[in-house]
Design goal:
The complex is a heterodimer of chains A (about 80) and B (about 130). Chain A has about 80 residues and is α+β, with helices and mostly antiparallel strands. In chain A, about 45% of the residues lie in helices and about 25% in strands. In chain A, α1 links the parallel β1 and β2. The relative contact order of chain B is 0.21. In chain B, α1 links the parallel β2 and β3. Chain B has one domain. Classes of the chains: A alpha+beta (about 80), B alpha/beta (about 130).
Chain lengths: ~80, ~130
């Protein structure tokens, strides 16, 4: 599984990354976590608001700092 | 690109960009609105193709504005199919006649002025809701 955190490094982006890593740890799921901070790369994925979360290339959330539980929901859904 | 740390209203704009003169006008007006700072322009085709980033961006917007060329309203129908609310602007309501009107800078500017007023009204209404 590949998880992408899309954002330019603001506090909300960092919080989303932290919540995603905690969700992965709690679920015992191994995944590559990639931070995408290049605005052009983010826009290429159709994302115009950050932070955003993508799992295996599919954007799941835009413009929200998902909680650990919300990220866990999307991870389980993607498995 | 808007960052979630800000409090600004996020407006997303799409245009039908169809084959007729009114589609051309929709495209030019949408680009003009983007250039004036009224919102971010994304591809309606990508939304129609249900590409996840575009769909989630539209769901997260405070206001979606779809610029359709004519009353057939293909753009608006895409939003309806996706269940995403959108404010529709139809270029034939702004003085263009499908298949006849020459789309020049003047008619684009007039329509963009009118569209800008409608967007401002929607923002005020949304803020008061």
């Amino acid at each position: 599984m590949k998880i992408q955190i899309l954002g330019m490094g603001c506090p909300k982006c960092k919080a989303l990354e932290r919540n995603a890593r905690e969700a992965l740890e709690e679920l015992g799921v191994e995944a590559e976590v990639e931070k995408v901070s290049d605005p052009a790369a983010i826009a290429e994925m159709g994302v115009m608001m950050t932070p955003a979360l993508a799992i295996d290339g599919k954007v799941r959330s835009v413009g929200k700092t998902l909680s650990k539980e919300q990220v866990a929901f999307y991870i389980k859904e993607a498995k | 690109m808007a960052c979630g740390c800000g409090s600004e209203k996020k407006v997303i704009i799409t245009a039908c960009s169809g084959a007729a003169n009114t589609g051309l006008m929709a495209d030019r007006v949408a680009r003009s609105l983007r250039d004036r700072g009224d919102g971010s322009l994304i591809c309606l085709a990508a939304l129609g193709a249900e590409l996840s980033g575009y769909v989630e961006t539209s769901k997260a917007a405070d206001l979606n504005v779809v610029v359709d060329g004519c009353p057939v309203g293909c753009g608006k129908k895409i939003y309806e199919r996706l269940g995403i609310p959108a404010m529709q602007l139809v270029m034939t309501d702004f003085g263009a006649e499908k298949g006849k009107t020459v789309i020049d800078d003047a008619i684009v500017a007039r329509a963009a002025d009118g569209a800008e007023s409608r967007i401002a009204e929607s923002k005020i209404a949304a803020a008061g809701a």
